[in-house]
Specification:
Shape: elongated
Order of helices and strands: HHHHHH
Number of strands: 0
Radius of gyration: 17 Å
Structural class: mainly alpha
């Protein structure tokens, strides 16, 4: 395992602060609930190790990751529902009035994904 310099860790911290919502969406789209719970458990182990070694930057970064995973766990069913609506659009199926209301409230989000204008996916890389 390569030990990162303080500058590299600080860059990761800044990136995670700026792009939290993208990371959360990526987690919801690409991980199951069980996988996210396992990731949270592993992050907790990493946190304990970082506290033991007193590496402040690592502690801050791990806390940001834990926050993103916790947020993703809370938003999981919502994102799952949003992607189900997109699948309906792609298959030219009718959507319910409730789903139409969701689309109207999140118009930009849907538009960008339906027409492949969404920004590149961001992945959380541990370590």
């Amino acid at each position: 395992m390569k030990i990162r310099t303080d500058i590299e860790i600080q860059e990761k911290i800044n990136d995670n602060i700026l792009n939290k919502n993208k990371y959360v969406e990526w987690l919801c789209q690409n991980k199951t609930e069980k996988q996210m719970e396992k990731l949270l458990h592993n992050l907790e182990k990493m946190y304990k190790f970082a506290v033991q070694k007193k590496t402040t930057n690592h502690i801050q970064l791990i806390n940001l990751w834990k926050d993103q995973v916790n947020t993703a766990l809370k938003n999981y069913s919502n994102y799952k529902h949003l992607y189900t609506i997109i699948k309906k659009f792609n298959k030219n199926k009718k959507i319910t009035s409730f789903e139409r209301m969701i689309v109207n409230n999140n118009h930009d989000w849907f538009y960008n994904r339906i027409y492949d204008l969404a920004e590149e996916e961001i992945k959380i890389v541990e370590g």
